[in-house]
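stage 2 :: seqdesign
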């Protein structure tokens, strides 16, 4: 099974896991979000069984990039591949003192409803 993680870097990790009593080599490809690396990033996509698409719960723009950049890009190269959406930085969303956008005072975190 091969997974590709879309994030801020390009890194490859592997480990062996047991699935239903059978040992499987799990490869995690952590790829960069920078557009300068678009052509390089998609090289990791072929034969991917599942994408773990991570976004920050503390930043609405991060979720918007999932909708407008990452899902379309993944679907263009891997039409029927499973995508698991992973919300990160939950602790910041739960801390109300960190939820305001300093530029305009609006709440900048992703709500429960927006993240589902």
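stage 2 :: out
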């Amino acid at each position: 099974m091969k997974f590709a993680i879309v994030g801020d870097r390009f890194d490859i990790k592997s480990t062996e896991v047991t699935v239903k009593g059978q040992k499987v080599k799990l490869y995690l490809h952590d790829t960069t979000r920078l557009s300068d690396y678009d052509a390089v990033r998609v090289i990791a996509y072929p034969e991917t069984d599942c994408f773990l698409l991570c976004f920050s719960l503390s930043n609405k723009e991060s979720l918007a990039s999932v909708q407008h950049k990452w899902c379309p890009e993944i679907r263009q190269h891997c039409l029927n591949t499973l995508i698991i959406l992973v919300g990160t930085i939950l602790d910041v969303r739960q801390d109300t003192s960190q939820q305001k956008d300093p530029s305009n005072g609006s709440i900048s975190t992703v709500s429960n409803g927006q993240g589902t």
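stage 3 :: structure notes
- Residues 13 and 28 are 5 Å apart (CA to CA).
- The mean pLDDT is 79.
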